[in-house]
Task: inverse folding
């Protein structure tokens, strides 16, 4: 009888044997090497990380490293830096708190703005660290505006940012069917609170009114020293702007505004002494000028009075002499008959020879045409009144 082939159930059972691994599975044969590769990569990463961590811990735990950390974080330099940082922060807080409306008012009775107190505290160097930081920041801003193309950089940063967001959105929609930039969109856009906006607008209003009020106070000579200083600054700026660029003039103005009060504060006694002497000299010179002007005025007045008296006397003398020389003409009267000669119709009037002039008895003198000369050359010889 032929032996039958062995069946599957007749094979001996080995419990430690993985039957599934021996089955014919092409996918399993392909995934096994991949899993092994991923495991090796992960092991390599873990090994590098562990080696780096151990090296860092070794360096960090070294005594020299600990000493260096203690020197930097707890040494005198670190303490000095921390102390200066705390003082600077305190001064900036004090400078911000100085924005209060002063009790002083203008010549017209109007109240000043809180920026008057702020700028006085800033420029009087009451908070030296805050004023120094402000001065250096202003100088750096002037140089940056002069040498750095800030506007070009602004546009460059804007187009780079917008290009990156647009490219990320398009790539996300093509690859992931969802935009990347839109996935970072907040649930609610940021808005400026109304309270913050109103406070900012109030500060801007106060700042503008500060400059407007100060300009009018200088213009209408509320303080002659300030007006004189503003006049001098304007005159010097007018001549300097012909030779210096605008940023150079701004740098000089900033230096004068910040450093001028500092020089005065450090040398106040000497400067006040010289200013007092100059004021005394100016007042004495003004008094001398007033005295000389009064003397010259008195002399001129007396001289004018003397000349006026002389000319008045001379004029009166001329008038009196003219009146003495001018005699009034004599008036000659002729006697006329008391009764007029009347002529009746048909009767001739009675005339006497004296009513008629003498008739000439010689020929007229040749070459003489005047009637008076003819009469003088006649036989009468001017003894009788010539006929008219």
Result:
């Amino acid at each position: 009888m032929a032996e039958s082939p062995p069946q599957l159930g007749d094979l001996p059972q080995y419990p430690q044997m993985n039957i599934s691994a021996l089955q014919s599975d092409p996918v399993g044969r392909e995934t096994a090497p991949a899993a092994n590769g991923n495991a090796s990569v992960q092991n390599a990463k873990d090994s590098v990380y562990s080696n780096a961590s151990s090296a860092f811990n070794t360096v960090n735990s070294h005594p020299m490293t600990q000493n260096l950390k203690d020197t930097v974080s707890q040494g005198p330099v670190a303490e000095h830096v921390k102390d200066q940082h705390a003082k600077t922060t305190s001064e900036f807080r004090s400078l911000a708190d100085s924005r209060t409306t002063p009790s002083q008012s203008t010549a017209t009775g109007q109240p000043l703005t809180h920026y008057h107190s702020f700028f006085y505290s800033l420029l009087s160097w009451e908070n030296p660290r805050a004023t120094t930081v402000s001065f250096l920041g202003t100088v750096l801003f002037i140089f940056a505006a002069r040498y750095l193309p800030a506007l070009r950089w602004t546009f460059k940063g804007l187009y780079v940012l917008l290009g990156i967001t647009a490219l990320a959105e398009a790539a996300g929609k093509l690859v992931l069917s969802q935009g990347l930039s839109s996935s970072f969109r907040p649930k609610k856009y940021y808005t400026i609170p109304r309270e913050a906006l109103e406070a900012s607008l109030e500060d801007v209003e106060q700042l503008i009114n500060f400059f407007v009020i100060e300009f009018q106070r200088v213009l209408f000579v509320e303080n002659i020293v300030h007006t004189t200083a503003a006049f001098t600054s304007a005159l010097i700026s007018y001549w300097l702007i012909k030779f210096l660029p605008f940023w150079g003039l701004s740098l000089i103005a900033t230096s004068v505004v910040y450093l001028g009060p500092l020089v005065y504060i450090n040398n106040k006694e000497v400067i006040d002494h010289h200013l007092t002497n100059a004021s005394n000299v100016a007042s004495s010179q003004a008094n001398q000028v007033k005295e000389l002007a009064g003397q010259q005025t008195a002399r001129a007045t007396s001289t004018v009075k003397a000349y006026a008296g002389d000319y008045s006397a001379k004029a009166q003398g001329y008038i009196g002499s003219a009146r003495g020389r001018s005699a009034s003409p004599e008036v000659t009267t002729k006697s006329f008959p008391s009764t007029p000669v009347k002529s009746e119709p048909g009767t001739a009037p009675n005339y006497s020879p004296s009513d008629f002039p003498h008739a000439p008895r010689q020929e007229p003198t040749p070459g003489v045409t005047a009637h008076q000369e003819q009469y003088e050359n006649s036989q009468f010889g001017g003894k009788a009144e010539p006929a008219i």
Observations:
- Residues 81 and 87 are 10 Å apart (CA to CA).
- DSSP finds 13 helices and no strands in the chain.
- Residues 8-34, 382-388 have pLDDT under 50 and may be disordered.
- Residues 268-325 form the longest helix (58 residues).
